[in-house]
Amino acid sequence: MTSPASPAPASIGPVICVVGARPNFMKMAPILRALAAHEPPIPALLVHTGQHYDHGMSHQLFIDLRLPQPDINLEVGSGSHAVQTAEVMRRFEPVIDEHKPSCVLVVGDVNSTLACTLVAVKRNVPVAHVEAGLRSYDRKMPEEINRVLTDQVADRLYTTERSAADNLLREGVAPERVCFAGNVMIDSLLDSRERARSAADTLRQHGLDAALLQHPKGYGVVTMHRPSNVDDAVTLRGLLETLAMVARDLPLVFAMHPRTRSNIERFGLGGLLDPARVAVLPPQGYLEMVGLMGGAALVLTDSGGLQEETTALGVPCLTMRENTERPITVEQGTNTMVGRERAAILAGVADILEGRGKRGRVPEYWDGHAAERIAADLWPWLQAGGH
Ligand code: UD1
Q: How many Cβ atoms are within 10 Å of 59's Cβ, its own excluded?
């Protein structure tokens, strides 16, 4: 992990760092800082594919995370998986041709991650994938396809937990390609905690009564946007009814993804959540989310990132999915998988409210220094030509 004694080549091309969707931004912010702080500095170029484009889904997070403005924005916007992926590929290829990067660095598992990886490897540009090796073993999740394919063709694979290397080796990946670096998302979390906005301020900013948070049991935070939970009317209705039942015991703050909001409208389910018990907010900034989660009695979610953030914060998390690609959050952290069945969700909430929630511990290398470890490993690898 140390730089070789040999002098650096006169110049190396920039590392093209790719972001596209909301969960990418908190991963990339510490990486960009670590590349700049490396001695010698590692040149970087930030490309935003524009997969997410709303102020609340993108721009606000750049501000909160102190991300520089992207050098290039491909402005692909929304579309079907095929259209979105193809459009990113079509627009990213000329960027590679123009800037001659030493490597393309991708994070996470969104469509932009896979699209840019495919373009780069076909142009013989090495690819580094941060958050490699996570597997839900559920091929119906678009993210799982993105993870498997990205890891097969990427050259350097940075993992967040040790089980990820086992997954990669099972898929025939050579162990030399894998580096256990830790969790860059937790770098961002630790960096931002002191700047987090209080939950009361967040509610007030949206004209909502912060007294909701003063319940003797506290409050719960909800996020939910997985297609498997929100794209089918019957499933979505069932989950909203369950949340309404939870809210009778524990007030909820629901930061609602645009996909969820539009499906609730489309299916006519808007009346299921009592505004006196459930504060529905638009997608929140990063500092708002950290503040909301940090003060919560529990978090109910289907997000990947929140499973990890709650583990790092020591806040009990109930994940409304059948599987997780982040098993360490269950084995060591505060996460419990409750699926989508009402009884299991209500039992999980009751356990936590009765003091039986998981305390958990913070996993290895979720220590705020993952991005530094990546930069330290990347530099000699780049000097060797990415092989
Ligand atoms: C994507 C990721 C998912 C991640 C999620 C976080 C993939 C396959 N999925 O899902 O892993 O957890 O981001 O949000 O890449 N929309 C807006 N404004 C925006 C962006 C999207 O209104 O800025 C709406 C559009 O109606 C769009 C829909 O949200 O069609 C879905 O957006 P999309 O990027 O396709 O997928 P996500 O569900 O956000």
A: 15
Which one, of 220, 214, 266, lies nearest residue 243 by Cα?
220
Query: Which CATH number belongs to the domain containing residue 268 in this structure?
Result: 3.40.50.2000
Which of 48, 52, 225, 257 does the annotation list as catalytic?
225
Are residues 133 and 256 both part of a single domain?
no
Best residue among 25, 89, 225 to mutate for probing ligand 1's pocket (most ligand atoms within 8 Å of CB) is 225
Name the domain count of the chain.
2
Q: Is 215 a catalytic residue?
A: no
Residue 221 lies in domain: 196-353
Residues 6+ apart with CB under 8 A from 187: 30, 368, 369, 370, 371
CB-based burial, 175-198: b 16+ in 10 Å, e otherwise: eebbbbbbbbbbbbbebbeeebbb
CA distance 328 to 373: 20
User: What's the confidence (pLDDT) of residue 11?
Assistant: 80
Q: What are the pLDDT digits (tens) for 184-200?
A: 999 999 999 999 999 99
How high is the mean pLDDT of the chain?
A: 96
214 belongs to a structural domain = yes
297 and 171, same domain (yes or no): no
Indicate whether residue 321 lines ligand 1 (CB < 6 A): no
